[in-house]
């Protein structure tokens, strides 16, 4: 069966060869991984939340120097400098803007007016309905199996629910790593799948080898959900550090959070007032204490310790449950080719009606 059989509303919308997305993972989805994903025919998404504005512009230009294929940039819609980051995306001619939280109607309109495809990530049907009504071009739906901040509804329940609720392309995320999963998502009505952990575990990923080894050694039971990092459900590998964070008292956790907040402020280039504004945006609509808001600074710094510095003893490792079934480190080109080959094979073996 040819790849024409796997052309979807998503591939047509974005202009990529395959209905696959490499998600925007902080400290992981940099220019090397994004360009490798794009050159393999998937949509690579550059993670910008851990970059300054100047670093973002430089990273976008580096990706453009490495590939002529479409790619995207992921950003936080609630960040104080979100509009400045949108301007970088527009000025640099980036094809896709993806969002970890629902962007405002005005932000969507600004991007669409500039010809940028807007693809927010959501974890509930009502959020998909909202962004679709505001003009989003497509939506990534992450079920509870996904890594990082996640919900408690399984992808197999959430994905078809959202497909039935909106008229824009829906991309499934959470639990996908091979061609069988892609075919299953297409059967549910999705236009493709997004994968984070699977692309993290490639040879093109800059994550240190010792950290990749921890992922490869994990079983499905070694991946847990905890609120100890920043007060919100976060799926990651179960480690001694995660256990210690869960045992830490409120005062000790708060002191650690203040220290890490200062470190993140220096790395991100954000001022204290900007970080306070971001905290207010994060608190809005959620039952979070101010100590939990401050704990949010734990996330980028603890992730950096592992994903950049290789310190699995001092950092956390965001992970989808699929880490427990991944056993190798292919290149992005090998991974994408394998997924598509498996998908074609599965489609070819399905019984036909009649």
From TrEMBL:
GO MF terms on file? nitronate monooxygenase activity
UniProt keyword annotations, A-Z = Flavoprotein, FMN, Monooxygenase, Oxidoreductase
Q: What is this protein called?
A: Nitronate monooxygenase
Native organism is Streptomyces sp. NBC_00119
């Amino acid at each position: 069966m040819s790849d024409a059989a796997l052309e979807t509303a998503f591939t047509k919308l974005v202009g990529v060869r395959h209905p696959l997305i490499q998600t925007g993972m902080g400290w992981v989805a940099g220019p090397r991984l994004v360009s490798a994903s794009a050159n393999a025919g998937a949509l690579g998404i550059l993670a910008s939340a851990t970059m300054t504005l100047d670093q973002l512009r430089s990273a976008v230009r580096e990706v453009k120097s490495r590939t002529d294929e479409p790619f995207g940039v992921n950003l936080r819609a609630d960040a104080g400098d979100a509009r400045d980051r949108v301007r970088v995306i527009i000025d640099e001619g980036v094809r896709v803007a993806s969002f970890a939280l629902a962007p405002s109607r005005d932000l969507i309109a600004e991007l669409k007016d500039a010809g940028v495809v807007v693809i927010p990530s959501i974890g509930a049907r009502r959020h998909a309905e909202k962004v679709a009504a505001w003009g989003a071009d497509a939506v990534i739906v992450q079920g509870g199996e996904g890594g990082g901040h996640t919900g408690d509804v399984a992808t197999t329940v959430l994905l078809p629910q959202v497909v039935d609720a909106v008229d824009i392309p829906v991309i499934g995320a959470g639990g996908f790593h091979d061609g069988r999963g892609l075919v299953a998502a297409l059967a549910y009505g999705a236009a493709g799948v997004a994968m984070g952990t699977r692309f993290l575990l490639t040879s093109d990923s800059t994550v240190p080898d010792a950290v990749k080894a921890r992922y490869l050694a994990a079983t499905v039971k070694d991946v847990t959900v905890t609120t100890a990092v920043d007060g919100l459900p976060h799926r990651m590998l179960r480690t001694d550090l995660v256990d210690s964070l869960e045992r830490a008292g409120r005062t000790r956790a708060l002191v650690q959070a203040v220290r890490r907040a200062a470190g993140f402020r220096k790395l991100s280039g954000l001022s204290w007032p900007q970080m306070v504004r971001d905290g207010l945006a994060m608190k809005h609509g959620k039952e979070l204490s101010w100590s939990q808001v401050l704990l949010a600074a734990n996330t980028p710094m603890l992730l950096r310790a592992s994903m950049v510095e290789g310190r699995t003893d001092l950092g956390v490792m965001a992970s989808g449950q699929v880490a427990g079934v991944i056993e190798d480190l292919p290149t992005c080109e090998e991974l994408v080719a394998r997924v598509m080959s498996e998908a074609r094979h599965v489609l070819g073996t399905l019984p036909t009606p009649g």
